[in-house]
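Researcher: Here's my situation. A collaborator sent me these components and asked whether they could plausibly form a single complex. I don't have experimental data yet, so a predicted model of the whole assembly would be a useful starting point for our discussion.
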Amino acid sequence: MFNRKSNQSDAQDNDFTEDIDSMNDSLPNDPYDQSPAPEQQAQSGLTELLKPSVISEGFEFTGDVNFQGTLNVDGLVNGSITVQNLLIGSSGKVSGSIRATTIQVRGTFTGDATCQDLTIGGQASVNAQINYSSLTIQRGAMIQGELTKS
Amino acid sequence: MSSDNQNGCLTVGEGVALKGNFVVPDIASISGTIEGDLTAREILIGPTGVLKGNIVAEIIDIRGEAYENISAKKSLFIRSSGKVTGNVEFSEIEVEKGGNLQGTLTKINGSSSI
């Protein structure tokens, strides 16, 4: 769980058994090892920016998130989030302040936000002060607070 | 719009400017400008329509502009060309992409009567 950057726990389990296999064979370049290679690449370099980071359901996080990439929140985040794209999934809850280029809310958001594109889904519940440039609110969304357009 | 039966309806054409308080039992269709209070069952603001004042209706559909206090007891629709600024109350809201909504949003409990 310490390395939980994305939903790769299954893949990591596989890595583990494969590592043991390769150790027994004493072949560090075992072709068998190449299957998890794309996953490993994702953990370094630019590839990481293209893949979303995930706070999965049941995961609670308190603190500040700061990076240039995509963050999917299906769990719970308390704190400030500065990212490129933020998706709050239907089970996700965020309270705090958000700075992002695009924000999609399908879950719950409380706090304040500054963004370019704001999309609030039909199941979403939002209580916030939001500064946006472009806005879409789907029917059924619960929204309260203050909106300003920049 | 029910053009067959216009009982209780108000239509304000483009270029028409009204000031005052209006109570409309059915549909108010606004393509001109109204300053004042407007209460209706349903308010449709066309792309050229401008409303300023206390606007109260069950259903409000905005393609034009609305300012000050806007209260939709049931549904508020802001189309992509719509612009809404002020205190906004609604029990249900939908904003199309490109719609402009600024101000304080308050959700009210929907009135089940129609």
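Model: Some features of this prediction you could bring to your collaborator: The helical segments of chain A are 9-25, 37-42, 47-50. Chain A touches chain B at residues 134-149 (CB under 8 Å).
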